[in-house]
């Protein structure tokens, strides 16, 4: 991804995150659900776990109620539980991993498959949110605006192409996004670590805050 010329990117990142935290005064809702999810037994996830953790995370924090209320997702809660149970072993492995230290190319197939599987039962945005909730140090968050903006930036990289008229996001899109987020994190690790400690937020959540405020603006300004 392109660098933002002579712009002091770390200063921009700090200003954006400081503004977000000042407005929302700490994302305690996100942290609450991440903590709750960390105590869930993935192999034996229950209806209660979905009702008390994943559903309110998606509805209250993720504002996914309108999307998940569509007829095509009427049984998403049951299907998400089935997906988690069937993939609990690999999800537990990813829970213990950190995007900073992993060679993502070694995990490409699993990342794409997991994203696609959850996408089929909960949609393309909720899929990433569920994966992040379960594995908050490995799978990055995105929303439609972030995904669209980043895909445009990724289109400038060799070997990557997509139909600009296509609004759907694939597992390949999400994997390339994950690669880009790792590059961004490592390139600006000092300021991201500082903000993570200052606001007691996961590094991937700090990056999400930054991208959320940048959505609709040229992402190359910070990438």
Q: N-to-C terminal Cα separation, in Å?
A: 6 Å
Q: Note the quaternary state here.
A: single chain
Number of strands: 0
Low-confidence segments, ≥5 residues, pLDDT <50?
1-6
Largest sheet: none
Radius of gyration: 17 Å
Percent in helix: 55-70%
Mean pLDDT: 88
Q: What string gives the helices and strands in order?
A: HHHHHHHHHHHH
Structural class: mainly alpha
Strand content: under 5%
Shape: globular
Could you describe the 3D structure shown?
By secondary structure, the protein is mostly helical. It has a domain at 9-26 and 86-221. Helix content is 64%, strand content 0%. The protein contains 12 helices and no strands. The chain has helices at residues 9-24, 28-38, 47-61, 65-68, 76-86, 88-95, 108-122, 124-134, 144-154, 171-187, 189-199, 203-214. It starts with 8 loop residues before the first helix and ends in a 9-residue tail after the last helix.
Characteristic terms for this protein:
disordered N terminus; 223 residues; mainly alpha
């Amino acid at each position: 991804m392109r660098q933002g010329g002579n712009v002091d990117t770390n200063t921009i990142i700090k200003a954006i995150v400081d503004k977000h935290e000042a407005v929302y005064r700490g994302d305690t809702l996100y942290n609450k659900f991440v903590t709750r999810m960390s105590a869930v037994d993935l192999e034996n996830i229950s209806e209660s776990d979905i009702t008390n953790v994943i559903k309110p995370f998606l509805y209250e924090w993720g504002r996914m109620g309108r999307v998940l209320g569509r007829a095509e997702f009427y049984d998403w809660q049951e299907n998400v539980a089935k997906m988690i149970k069937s993939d609990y072993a690999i999800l537990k492995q990813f829970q213990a991993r950190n995007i900073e230290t992993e060679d993502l190319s070694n995990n490409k197939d699993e990342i794409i498959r997991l994203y696609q599987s959850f996408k089929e039962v909960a949609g393309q945005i909720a899929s990433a949110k569920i994966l992040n909730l379960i594995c908050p140090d490995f799978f990055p968050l995105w929303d439609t605006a972030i995904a669209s903006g980043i895909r445009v930036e990724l289109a400038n990289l060799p070997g990557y192409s997509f139909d600009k008229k296509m609004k759907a996001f694939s597992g390949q899109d999400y994997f390339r996004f994950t690669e880009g987020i790792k590059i961004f994190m490592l390139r600006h690790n000092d300021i991201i670590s500082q903000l993570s400690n200052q606001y007691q937020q996961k590094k991937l959540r700090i990056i999400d805050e930054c991208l959320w405020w940048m959505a609709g603006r040229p992402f190359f300004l910070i990438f």
